[in-house]
């Protein structure tokens, strides 16, 4: 393993963990709400799914800020291995 000639100083991110966001990403036929939940940084999120009642309770308990839906076709048009979600994988058939 090569060592860099100059050491890079690691500076912790300045995250405010009191800030929390939700972006609704879909709704299933059985009524479950799919959404992204983020703490401190809206672009770093986890995918979750809850019933409408549990979703409302979750949002109230976490005092979330609602984010608008992601628009298709925004950002880079370059395909990326990083530009996917777990919800996308549920719609994909994988070869065995």
Describe this structure in words.
This is Phenol hydroxylase subunit. The chain contains 2 helices and 4 strands. The protein is an alpha+beta fold and about 100 residues long. The chain has a domain of about 55 residues. Strands 3-2-1-4 form a 4-stranded mixed beta sheet. A hairpin with a 5-residue loop joins strand 1 and strand 2. The protein is flat and about 55 Å long. The protein starts with 19 loop residues before the first strand and ends in a 7-residue tail after the last helix. The relative contact order is 0.18.
Furnish the topology, listing elements before pairings.
Elements lengths: L19 E8 L5 E7 L5 E6 L1 H11 L2 E2 L19 H4 L7
Parallel strand pairs: 1-4
Antiparallel strand pairs: 1-2, 2-3
Structural class: alpha+beta
Give the averaged pLDDT, no decimals: 83
Low-confidence stretches: none
Shape: flat
> End-to-end span in angstroms?
35 Å
Please, how many helices?
2
Radius of gyration: 18 Å
What attributes characterize this protein structure?
four-stranded mixed beta sheet, 4 strands, 96 residues, single chain, alpha+beta, flat
Give a summary of the structure in a few sentences.
By secondary structure, the protein is α+β, with helices and mostly antiparallel strands. The chain is built from 2 helices and 4 strands, in the order E-E-E-H-E-H.
